Amino acid sequence: MDNSTIYHIPALLHETVAFLAPRPGKLFIDGTLGGGGHTQALLDAGAKVIGLDRDPEAIEFCKKKFVGNKNLKLMHGNFARIDECLSLSGPFSKKVDGILLDLGVSSHQIDTPERGFSYSTEGPLDMRMNQGISATAKGILNRAPQEELEKIFRDFGEERFSRQIARGVALGRKKKYIGTTLQLVEIIKHAVPDKNPAHVRSSLARIFQSLRIAVNQELKNLAMFLPHALSILKPRGRLLIISYHSLEDKIVKDFFRREARDCICDARLPACLCDHKKTLKILTKKPVTAEPAEVKLNPRATSAKLRAAEKL
Q: What domains sit in the chain, N to C, each tagged with a CATH number?
């Protein structure tokens, strides 16, 4: 087995390569390096790559995987500040031909119980993608007011039983500190009034997703990233985002639509007052999704949606 599949199987790999069209002389940023699956394909085509990830474990894995590759610059950092990362990349610090984000949690992160991302295995409620930050899932669960927990579950998880689960957490933490994934699982199972096993699993997935988003400020980071990415792309450079839930996809879709228009004024105004000029051409009218054959090999690609745009 190739060592890249041990860490993570990249989603929509062939589609990503087709949109980016890597070749010698081109420079790309993989802003979510993970196990380096997408980066490997770009390097194999002769391109240069800046591989960025906020998870130190991903950087260490790829240092070993790509040892001695002079076309790759590895950097530990947050894609929200991609412009600053590029300025610190030495001889690679110039406008780029393409930028990729794959916003999914890596298989390695999910399958490592100590990271606390999975509701299927016992582990500490951590959920930090970067172990250097202070916020953790258990910190939020044990300290945040009940109303704030409800908002997190509702807004970031789109969970219909957010109020009942937040109440369950508030009651549970009075009895005992909530420190592990399976403690939270039991609280959710008891709090959800719909006991259909499939519906319970959906609630578990949504609550764990909402906490991960809150801990890592994922939506805020994505919103920060997009204008910075645009500023460092060359004309005709391409921006590709692979998202896995509707909240991320909406941020990307709205940004692309805004930047593909000359005027962003309220349609009710009699004349344009914004002087906005379009900066992007949208390449995907609808998001690209995984083919059945890919989903069969990699079930985690089921919810992957790729949107692509080209800088004017």
A: 3-108+218-311 (3.40.50.150), 113-216 (1.10.150.170)
